[in-house]
Amino acid sequence: MLQTLPRRAVVALLALSVFFPLGLVLWQSVLSGPFFMPSAQLSLESFVFIFEDPDFWMATRNTLIVAVGMSVIAIPLGAVLAFIMVRTDLPGRRWLETPILIPIFVSPVVLGFGYVVSLGPVGFFSVWFEELFGYVPWNIYSLAAIVVIAGLTHVPHVYLYSSSALRNLGSDVEEAARLSGASPFRVARDVSIPMVSPALLYVGVLVFFLGFEIFGLPLILGDPEGHLVLTTYLYKLTNKLGTPSYHLMAAVATCIIAVTFPLVLLQRALLKSAQRFVAMKGKSARQRPLALGPWKWLALAVIALWLLLTIVVPVSGVALRSVVSSWGTGINLLEVLTLDHFRAVFEEDVMIRSILNSILIGTFGGALAVGGYLLVGLATHRKPDGLSRLVDYIVLTPRAVPGLMAGLAVFWVFLFVPFLAPLRSTLFSVWFAYAVVWLAYGMRLIQSALMQVGPELEEAGRLVGASRARVSLDITVPLIRNGLLGAWLLVFMIFEREYSTGVYLLSPGTEVIGAQIVSLWASGAVDVVAALSLINMLLVGSGLALALRFGVKLHD
Amino acid sequence: MTDKTILSVDNLALSYGYNPILKGVSMQLRRGEVVSLLGPSGSGKTTLLRAVAGLEQPHAGSVTIAGRTIYDAAAGIDIPAEKRDLGLVFQSYALWPHKTVFDNVAYPLKLRKVGQGEIAERVQAALKNLGLGHLAERYPHQLSGGQQQRVSIARALVYNPPVILLDEPLSNLDAKMREEARAWLRNLIVEMQLSALVVTHDQSEAMAMSDRILLLNGGVIEQQGSPQEMYSQPQTYFVADFMGSNNILKGRITEICDGEACVEVAGQLRLWGRRRSDAAIGQEVKAVLRVEQLHLADGPGEHRLAMDLATSMFLGDRYEYVFHAGDTLLRAWGKRPEAAGQRWLEFPPEAVWVF
Q: Quick check: B86 and A180 CB within 8 A?
């Protein structure tokens, strides 16, 4: 809760941070040249150009294939996984929960790199497989491989939403069906599945939407055979015409937003209708888990295979690649072991700076971002008025803008606004972009913490004479400090993982590991990329270890 | 067991891990009878109901319904919940939010492969019976709490189960509606000649609704009987204290004469009361006095004591007087407001139970 004036100031600043960069993208898309050129005029020629480019249509087609394909793979797998974890007596369920969520926190660009060094033509696993069986049946650079990998790595998203829907489903409605005479199978068919179907529909739209956003995987896996998706097409446009083709990039960005923004609004509507189903909840009786019997071995084998493919293979590939000098058929692992790559990283100022910057942006930047999200959260906390509804929509908007384009838009803001220009090559510009891109995620963390505070505790504060601001400071914030700590750790991990947002902001002084990997990958410096990737995973891993140590829930 | 018995529970025991919840409970429900399971929270009353329904897993004993054994630990019989043919009204109502009122009530019939036409007929009849005829096409979230409860009852009754189980049926209603619903529910059960087992933690609800009360305490039945018996002939201190509105005085027995004992409270009050335990002279005891049994008297006399009236409170239909009795307070009811000061209070020995 905030007083009226600071509340309006917070919302105004928030609106400016979100809509100004976005507006700049839309404005740029209808200009004939970069907006800072005096010759730029209002025109639709950028749209004409990309609509006439066959690559654009190929990228659109591929994006649709990836989005549909990964939904088809991730949704059934994630839903089945959630059912097994929540409703059955699978042994070791408690231990599996954390590994299942890990792919969410590994940078996709690191994952993509991991698949290349593990399953690529001369990858570790490919070479071993070839030595054993004489051939390699897969091609990691095909569009099908991108779809499968994108699908498998998005299983945790589906798992998160369907498992929480299954947990929220009071067992009383199922028991009522049992007593009415329904067998366990009919209970699942007539009650459980229809009741979680809104959550499944929601997550279906979410995964489809994420298909439009993915950048790291197609950048690394799609490049060798030239499979472009819309985000990588946008990225490659930079060099297409030789001159900065900002208007073309803005046009592509506008096309992507035209698809993603309605999807975000659709998600919001679906979430609302899903909540209707959990409106009534009885006292949650102990659920008797379904006995799997001999099926548990099959279930365990499926989960183990999935974990092997999505975590063990890429992560072990990155780790191994970072300590060998070269790799290929007939090479003895022990002879090529080396620490040279790490030495190379720590000898270069740029690399050291990117590591330090990454740590800074995760720790201090993360704390600062959580502070900002908290202010926005307090501005709308328990004040269901027009301003709060407006904030709801503002918060959702950056969700529709992929990180790559958000980074570009922020870059333009710092280029365009005179008094901000000196900040362009400081870490502030990167932090600002990160904070805006992850606004919706952070706000969800903050809001779920705020909702835990009983309204009567705050009302009691008001009644004994504290102002709104006082109540926030003395009652609300102290009560949610554990939630804030958790939010900080999660935002730390997300900021370490982030890579695409920093790509266009990369300049001396603003290097972060993720963007550095993207830029080094283009130059083919595989050794350094491997070392940096491992360091990146270690940073995320230490955040994860701390979060687990403090008992932070990895989901809400 | 007589042939009038419709539900019979024999020595049922149930534990959560090493924590015993039911320690051998036996009870019977006769056809057309309403029995309440009453007890404080944690006494096992809801667990007993859920075990009868097949939603909890006992480890010993047996349950028989209408002559059919549905659970018998020794014989290894455990009929799943859906085959027990019981009706259960959940405390939360547990209506399926994705089905309309009509579909909620029709579902048990659909599972029993009843024809479409007959389903429509029986559901409409059930809804009409409960005053819900006009709400058939609504969804549960569009109904008030009282309406949801009626739908939940209709769903449990539509397939004519031999026994209907009700888990705290009135606890989700607000206080004023609860009294109306209580009368409505009792009337419905009597009119439809249902055999019902009701869980409740509210003693007045239990007394008003049932023919017999089972008072549970710590997983065993403390006492069972008609509401009148439970109220006026409690066998243990727990029952005396749980039922009714009481004054509890702690003291020491100073004299025993036939079935009566004299209790000295806080060194000053001396009361004669009925002996309800075998406590001897000199032992610490508790005297239970029903609030409505104490009367103001106009002067000294047998079983009358002078007491210090602190205040009187207006309760609408009566006044409640608050007396100082040593270091505790004593409550009594009367018709007139009384000013504070010295008063005579009568303690009829048959209304003082010494445990």
A: no
Does A130 reach chain B within 8 Å, measured CB to CB?
A: no
| Rounded Cα distance, A348 and A358, in Å | 16
Optimal mutation site among A168, A172, A179, A189, interface B, most CBs of chain B within 10 A: A179
CA A271, CA A192: separation in Å to the nearest integer? 18
Claim: this prediction has a pTM higher than 0.80: no
Residue at token pair 């609704």: B209
State the DSSP code for B74: T
With a CB cutoff of 8 Å and minimum separation 6, the contacts of A384 are none
Based on the fold, state whether residues A331 and A347 are members of the same structural domain: no
State whether A372 and A450 are in the same domain: yes
Identify whether the C-beta of residue B155 lies closer than 8 Å to the C-beta of residue B102: no
Q: How far apart are the first and last CA of chain A?
A: 22
DSSP for B78-134, written as a single string: E--GGGS--EEE-TT----TTS-HHHHHHHHHHHTT--HHHHHHHHHHHHHHTT-GG
CATH code (residue B140): 3.40.50.300
Positive or negative, the Cα torsion across A430, A432, A437, A443? positive
Q: State pLDDT tens for residues B233-292.
A: 899 999 999 998 888 888 888 888 888 888 888 777 888 888 888 888 888 888 898 888
Q: How far apart are CA A533 and CA A117, in angstroms?
A: 12
Least Cα distance to A452 among A409, A483, A418, A419 occurs for A483
Determine the average pLDDT of the residues in B144-153.
90
| CB distance A26 to A44 below 8 Å | no
Q: Do B95 and A173 touch (CB under 8 A)?
A: yes
Place of tokens 């994108």: A150
* Antiparallel, parallel or unpaired: β B5-16 and B19-30: antiparallel
Instruction: Tell me which chain B residues have a C-beta less than 8 angstroms from the C-beta of A176.
Output: 88, 90, 94-96, 155
CATH code, A345: 1.10.3720.10
> In total, how many domains does chain A have?
2
Per residue in B7-29, pLDDT (tens digit) is 999 999 999 888 899 999 999 99
DSSP letter string, A113-165: HHHHHHHSTT-HHHHHHHHHHSS----TTSHHHHHHHHHHHTHHHHHHHHHHH
Interchain contact, B88 vs A173, CB within 8 Å: no
* Residue A333 and residue A352 in one domain: no
Query: CA-CA distance, B267 to B272, in Å (whole number)?
Result: 15
CA A113 – CA A518 distance, rounded (Å) = 10
Helix (H) or strand (E) holding A533: helix A526-549
Domain limits for position B334:
245-354
As a whole number of angstroms, the distance between CA B54 and CA A487 comes to 43
Q: Provide the CA A217 distance to its chain's centre, in angstroms.
A: 13
pLDDT at A275: 64
Low-confidence stretches of chain A (pLDDT beneath 70):
1-3, 239-243, 274-288, 555-556
Name the token pair of A221: 């896996």
d(CA A217, CA A126): 19
Based on its alpha-carbon atoms, the radius of gyration of chain A, rounded to whole angstroms, reads 25
Question: Is A148 inside any structural domain?
Answer: yes
| B165-179 CB burial, b ≥16 within 10 A, e <16 | bbbbbbebbeeebbe
